[in-house]
Automatic annotation (TrEMBL):
Source organism, top-level taxon: Bacteria
Gene Ontology molecular function: any one: transaminase activity
Keywords: Aminotransferase, Pyridoxal phosphate, Pyruvate, Transferase
Enzyme Commission number(s) of this protein: 2.6.1.-
Protein name listed in UniProt: Aminotransferase
Keyword set includes Transferase: yes
Species of provenance: Serinicoccus hydrothermalis
Domain Aminotransferase class I/classII large intervals: 41-387
SUPFAM superfamilies assigned to the protein according to its UniProt record, in alphabetical order: PLP-dependent transferases
Length: 397
């Protein structure tokens, strides 16, 4: 060893901004993987993703371009045929006028959020979101130096924000994030409430970020797009959920003109471009030939949801958010525990069922909440419910 080289390299400096919360669900996944190795019996009701692969036509398209295309870098905002396909998809499903120029494609909607937060907000800006809500909004905004305002949303507003909540703030925030259908609650915002929020945000100079990545997955309640009311805000989309393509990393924004160039420049610097193979596969997934297969998945989620609605009360789980969409049930377990992380660990140990503790999604009430995902097969969901029914952890003390 040369004399100037010490045995222990000096630890690299770590930024203060990187001190954000981890995803606690990752701990559940790790424990579930260990249980699977030792017992081979894990039922995953903790995954926030479909249990199915990309639609067959998307996989065929991917195989085709592997042989025929260099698959090098693409335009940073995504290839034109994909932006055209996304625009057509929004026109068909939401009845809103969208052109390819409105669309910018990113590596997943997660990539879109990072670029958007950088493009739209400065350090110290206040951005409002729901509590409970998707934790990556909170954690990425915090890492970028924004102040997150958590709006306490409960059953009286379907766990969604309202204009009254914004009016109660000392000043209009720089941004408001709304997700419908939402994660973790699965609730769909009332179309009139979304329209009121969109108008209020436009009037008050608040950027409305409407996360619509679970559109296509609702069970009776209609979903509407924020762009149906105001195009001053941003709409977020992705192939991850309805299209069953989480790992392909393709998401997008519909952005108002002033944000387009900053977003393009930022994503060019941050990502160069979205994955080329994912973009080609996404074009096929957005086309008519994938529809039958994808609607089939939704029918399975609907059947699983019916099963849950029937059986949750039998398990003593009577207090849950209305599961209008996505593939989640957000349940109160306060009569069983005040430590949802330990309870989920114990449930996994007891019967091999993996649920997500609420602490990721709700910094105040999460210790008494769990999220069940019903994206798996109906047999798996049924078996998980049987095991839970037999577990002493579900028996009220
Ligand atoms: C509400 C919500 N938004 C965004 C994302 C990120 O999805 P992706 O980056 O795969 O598009 C997720 C993932 O679970 C989510 O639940």
């Amino acid at each position: 060893m040369p004399p100037e080289q010490s045995a222990q390299p000096r630890a690299a400096r770590v930024s203060a901004r990187s001190a954000v919360e981890p995803f606690h669900v990752m701990e559940v996944l790790k424990a579930a993987a260990a249980r699977q190795r030792s017992h081979g019996d894990v039922l995953m009701l903790c995954a926030g993703q479909p249990s199915t692969p990309a639609p067959a036509v998307a996989r065929e398209a991917a195989i085709g371009v592997l042989d025929s295309d260099v698959l090098g870098y693409t335009e940073s905002s995504g290839i034109l045929p994909l932006r055209e396909a996304i625009a057509a998809h929004h026109r068909e499903t939401s009845g809103i006028e969208v052109s390819p120029e409105d669309v910018i494609v990113f590596p997943g909607s997660s990539g879109a959020f990072t670029a958007l937060f950088l493009a739209a907000f400065d350090t110290g800006d206040q951005v409002a979101m729901t509590r409970p809500g998707y934790p990556a909004y909170r954690n990425s905004l915090a890492a970028l130096g924004c102040e997150v305002l958590e709006l306490d949303c409960g059953p009286d507003t379907r766990f969604q924000p309202t204009v009254a909540m914004l009016e109660a703030l000392p000043q209009p925030p720089a941004g408001l994030i709304v997700a419908s259908p939402a994660n973790p609650t699965g609730t769909v915002i009332d179309p009139d409430v979304l329209a009121d929020l969109a108008r209020w945000c436009e009037e008050h100079g608040t950027l409305l970020v409407s996360d619509e990545i679970y559109h296509g997955l609702s069970y009776g309640r209609a979903t509407t797009s924020a762009w149906a009311t105001s195009r001053a805000g941003v709409v977020v989309g992705s192939v991850s959920k309805y299209f069953s393509m989480t790992g392909w990393r393709v998401g997008w924004l519909l952005a108002p003109p002033s944000l387009r160039r900053p977003l393009e420049v930022l994503t060019g610097n941050l990502n160069i471009c979205p994955p080329a193979i994912g973009q080609h596969a996404a074009i096929a997934a957005l086309g008519p030939d994938a529809r039958g297969e994808l609607d089939g998945h939704r029918e399975r989620y609907a059947a699983n949801r019916e099963l849950l609605l029937r059986r949750l009360p039998e398990l003593g789980l009577r207090d849950y958010a209305p599961p209008d969409g996505a593939f989640y049930a957000w349940c109160d377990i306060g009569h069983l525990t005040q430590d949802s992380v330990a309870w989920c660990r114990d449930l996994l140990d007891d019967c091999g069922v993996a649920l997500t503790p609420g602490v990721d999604f709700d910094t105040v009430e999460g210790h008494r909440k769990v999220r069940l995902s019903f994206a798996g097969s109906t047999t798996e969901v049924e078996e998980a419910l049987d095991r839970m029914a037999a577990s002493p952890l579900l028996q009220s003390p």
